[in-house]
């Protein structure tokens, strides 16, 4: 008998740990453990999502006559740690070996590598084959490159996969239609309602347990609406392809009050848990384009997020860990402001995104990058603090995908390893891409004085503060030149405003 471990984000029937399984003898171990529920103060919806999806997956395995040893969080015998539950299962079941799939987080893989010695029996850790880019291939692609740009990786992945390719050329004659995907939400365009996945008895039981143990964490369990089974995840995909994908491209960077999901896919939780696989998701989007049901700019933009960004950040994470987590290129050291945890703020854009995050455990990529991430970048928030926040508050956050996106893209802590320039912006960008500024007590057009938008003076203070570090960066040449043409007294006034504001955080 072999003990086969399935983690909470490995809920796929094709997970390598379940390959070549002897159903008559082998036992699948799944364990809800306090250690994983609490290493950051996770949003209650995230904990409930993972635990409910695990219980549904275990039930599906049992329906296929698989022997499952399932340890619940409230089991009196629960040791509280994954290592403890593996050791307990080994002691009680005496398997010949433990078989696992490599986890998504570096810290957990390092712990698992010590299990063989600790347990005194073979522990086989198999490569995770659910991704479109194997880790060895990414290492090969990155070898010798001075810059690891996602765009070039994405083009190679398009060639490898054949998605949106016409022979050797990209469909439509262009690799990237991003320039067409930067429009604010049109006034006459109403996004469809998100699909509903009402909690069943299993999910309600989990929610009660989470409320009891983690109800004090940031976030509300009310309105829980995540797919927790492969069947519901497929329904979510079908809904996106039919009702959202046709308008996804044009409005994918837009933000609007009262429209938290717009035309976004809402599939990241299902992909990151393994309820959906990236290949079939990309194929469904490509098929919609081929049938004339979605425009190329929308389909290319969506496939780029999965085939490009998602695979790229995973490759970068495993290539550069553990040193990557410690990088702090801009020497940012400020504590995280309390309004990230739901405290009051006069900035409507922050208030909208944080409130939405509290209620839904969700914000789309531009809200994360250009509102909460942009503020953290401009204000010099310590990387560890903002990374912990993103890990804690979003239902789709797992370190392999969260850390590079936050560390490398949002706050530029890696000094340009991932992104060629910091994604820094003043209030003008937020005003152009959203309706947040219309409902704000700050004046988005004012750079100094009573009521001026903090993003404006923080932006120019950021550019001035790091001017020496940005010398030689061609993508920062324009803001640096603009700053140097600015009247010295104007720049000085904005920097005084920034100092005053930051001191008050």
Automatic annotation (TrEMBL):
It comes from the Bacteria. GO terms for molecular function: lyase activity. InterPro entries: Crypto/Photolyase_FAD-like_sf, PhrB-like, Rossmann-like_a/b/a_fold, UV-DNA_repair_photolyase. The keyword Lyase applies. It holds the Pfam family DPRP. Keywords: Lyase. PANTHER family: SLR1343 PROTEIN. This is Cryptochrome/photolyase family protein.
């Amino acid at each position: 008998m072999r003990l086969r471990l399935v983690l909470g984000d490995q809920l796929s029937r094709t997970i390598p740990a379940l390959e070549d399984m002897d159903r008559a003898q082998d036992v699948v171990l799944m364990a809800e453990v306090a250690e994983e529920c609490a290493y950051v103060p996770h949003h209650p919806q995230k904990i409930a999502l993972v635990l409910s999806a695990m219980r549904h997956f275990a039930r599906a395995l049992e329906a296929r006559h698989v022997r499952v040893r399932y340890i619940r969080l409230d089991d009196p015998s629960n040791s509280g740690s994954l290592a403890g539950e593996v050791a307990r299962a080994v002691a009680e079941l005496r398997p010949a070996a433990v078989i696992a799939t490599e986890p998504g987080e570096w810290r957990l893989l390092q712990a698992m590598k010590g299990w063989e010695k600790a347990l005194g029996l073979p522990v086989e850790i198999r490569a995770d084959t659910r991704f479109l880019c194997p880790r060895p291939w990414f290492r090969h692609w990155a070898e010798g490159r001075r810059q690891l740009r996602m765009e070039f990786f994405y083009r190679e992945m398009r060639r490898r996969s054949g998605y949106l390719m016409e022979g050797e050329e990209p469909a439509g004659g262009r690799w990237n239609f991003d320039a067409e995907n930067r429009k604010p939400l049109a006034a006459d365009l109403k996004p469809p309602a998100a699909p509903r996945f009402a909690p069943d008895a299993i999910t309600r039981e989990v929610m009660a347990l989470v409320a009891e143990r983690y109800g004090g964490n940031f976030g509300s369990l009310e309105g829980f609406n995540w797919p927790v089974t492969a069947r519901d995840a497929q329904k979510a995909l079908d809904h996106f392809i039919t009702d959202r994908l046709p308008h996804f491209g044009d409005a994918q960077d837009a933000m609007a009050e009262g429209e938290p999901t717009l035309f976004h896919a809402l599939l990241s939780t299902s992909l990151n848990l393994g309820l959906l696989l990236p290949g079939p998701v990309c194929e469904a989007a490509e098929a919609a384009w081929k049938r004339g049901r979605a425009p190329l700019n929308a389909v290319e933009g969506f496939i780029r997020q999965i085939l490009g960004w998602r695979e790229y950040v995973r490759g970068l994470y495993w290539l550069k860990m553990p040193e990557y987590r410690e990088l702090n290129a801009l020497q940012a050291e400020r504590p995280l402001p309390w309004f990230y945890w739901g405290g009051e703020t006069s900035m409507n854009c922050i208030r909208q995104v944080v409130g939405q995050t509290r209620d839904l455990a969700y914000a789309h990529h531009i809200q994360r990058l250009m509102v909460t991430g942009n503020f953290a970048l401009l204000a010099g928030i310590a990387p560890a603090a903002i990374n912990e926040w993103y890990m804690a508050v979003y239902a789709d956050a797992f370190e392999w995908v969260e850390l590079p996106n936050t560390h490398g893209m949002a706050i530029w802590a890696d000094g340009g390893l991932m992104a060629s320039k910091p994604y820094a912006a003043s209030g003008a960008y937020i005003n152009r891409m959203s309706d947040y500024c219309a409902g704000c007590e700050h004046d988005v057009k004012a750079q100094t004085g009573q009521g001026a938008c903090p993003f404006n003076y923080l932006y120019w203070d950021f550019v001035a503060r790091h001017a020496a570090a940005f010398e030689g960066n061609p993508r920062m040449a324009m803001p640096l030149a603009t700053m140097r043409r600015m009247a010295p007294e104007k720049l000085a006034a904005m920097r005084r405003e920034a100092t005053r504001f930051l001191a008050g955080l």
